[in-house]
Amino acid sequence: MTTVAPRTGSSGRARDRSEGQWALGQREPLNHNEVFKAEDDALNVRRRVEEVYAKEGFASIPGDDLRGRMRWWGLYTQRRPGIDGGRTASLEPEELEDEYFMMRVRSDGGALTTEQLRVVAGISTEFARDTADISDRQNIQYHWIRIEDVPEIWRRLESVGLSTTEACGDCPRVVLGSPVAGVSTEERIDGTAAIEEIKRRYIGDQSISNLPRKFKTAISWLPDTAPEINDVTFVGVEHPEHGPGFDLLVGGGLSTNPHLAVRLGTFVPLEEVPEVWYGVVSIFRDYGYRRLRHRARLKFLVKDWGAEKFREVLETEYLQRRLLDGPPAPVPSRPVDHVGVFEQQDGRRYVGLAPVAGRVSGSTLTAVADAAEAAGSQRVRLTPYQKLVVLDVEPDGVEELVGTLAPLGLVARASTWRRSVMACTGIEYCKLAIVETKQLAHDLVGDLEQRLSDLELDRPISVHINGCPNSCARIQVADIGLKGQIVTDADGNQVEGFQVHLGGGLGLDAGFGRKLRSHKVTSAELGDYVVRVARNYQSQHEEGERFAE
Ligand code: SF4
């Protein structure tokens, strides 16, 4: 086994404090999350939910299960209504939370059959007050879930092969995959087999259910899963000798201290992806920093080690073999959201539909299942851009599908603004939020569609709205990224608003937006602000000039 020397700071001197790296013997619990994870594997909470909490009610749930372990089963307490964002930081968790839960359903690769979609939709209407948001991790997220209903929800999900296992928590979260895997005419190999194998072998596996923090994965031939910002990404590449396979990137992530993932310079054939993935997860488990939560993501280890050392440890300690060298995957000029009507490999069509910022409902999802089946389809995919794609549509069924779903807010021929505005959960349900986001996104899209209907943009301008300094809506990689905070308006009042980050992007434009300290906007003025920026950009930029410039 290779011995990995203690991490050194930029000065080169070994840091004197343990970072909580298990592989270096630093096993002592280092923060409260590490304590409760060490006391009892978080996955074990399921039995207590079924046997005790669902019967005895919300008040019977102890704090470490309620705000800790239940996340491993996709459950967070949601924000108590009526608490304004200015008080978020000053209240204790129990003062902020309601007796209802947000629940995330795992749908790896965003893949759902229409049968599964009907079950997901039925749970929404029956148990979640008709809520259902499409997250940018290809999950469906419910609100208003009562603890009493959780076992029945699990039963229904599992009856159609779905679950909430490790949908949240310090574990391998849902695996992103191309929404058009297996049907795209641009695809050389379909990564779905690797996603399925990882799910089958490792999700719920207690050897990797206690990681230092969350762990995000993307596996896709097409670079349509935000490949630069996952903890581990396998993205399609053609090897000159070995044919199609995957380029491996590690250590991407946003939030505070954003990092773009780095290439390890390897080539991974499809059938080796699960083994290599498990190796990367295991490095994170063993060498990840567990002392401080805000330094516990894999990106910090990758930044300190660098790609060369990471690859060496992966090969020598975890795989016991060298990986093939490989070329970099091609980089798209812009992220691909799949909204519109496109031909599949088999001549049928896939239809990408844009709700605003992922907001749908159980009733709408039932209508999607009906319309998809009427058009000959039994497969739907969620996208990492909060969109929805219906696969396998017969060509002569396209117009009816598009016409049926547009009045429900699912638009195939969508405006640039409907396509490029994303928003996180925000103050409506999130305990960490400072400002409202989803309704704002809805109003903003309507406003921009009207006021900028004359503007022919030569590239879309993405607007990502976050309710707090975290980055659930990926603000650092948007053209206009908006970080929720309380700001001072022109009359000196403290109101909801945003710190603006300008000029971030993915693909060829990959990089983080610039935060200009004075660049703040109130929620009420957001429409005016975006109109100004869009018109200035369109009138002043030169051909080929990027938004960031
Ligand atoms: Fe909540 Fe903040 Fe994430 Fe939005 S960005 S969902 S407000 S934690």
UniProtKB/TrEMBL annotation:
Residues 168-320, 419-549 form the Nitrite/sulphite reductase 4Fe-4S domain. Residues 97-159, 343-406 form the Nitrite/Sulfite reductase ferredoxin-like domain. The keyword Signal does not apply. Residues 1-11 have a biased composition (Polar residues). InterPro entries: NIR_SIR_4Fe-4S, NiRdtase/SiRdtase_haem-b_fer, Nit/Sulf_reduc_fer-like_dom_sf, NO2/SO3_Rdtase_4Fe4S_dom, NO2/SO3_Rdtase_4Fe4S_sf, NO2/SO3_Rdtase_FeS/sirohaem_BS. Signal peptide: none annotated. Its EC number is 1.8.7.1. Keywords: 4Fe-4S, Heme, Iron, Iron-sulfur, Metal-binding, Oxidoreductase, Thioether bond. Belongs to the nitrite and sulfite reductase 4Fe-4S domain family. Catalyzes the reduction of sulfite to sulfide, a step in the biosynthesis of sulfur-containing amino acids and cofactors. This is assimilatory sulfite reductase (ferredoxin). It comes from Luteipulveratus flavus. The lineage of its organism: Bacteria, Bacillati, Actinomycetota, Actinomycetes, Micrococcales.
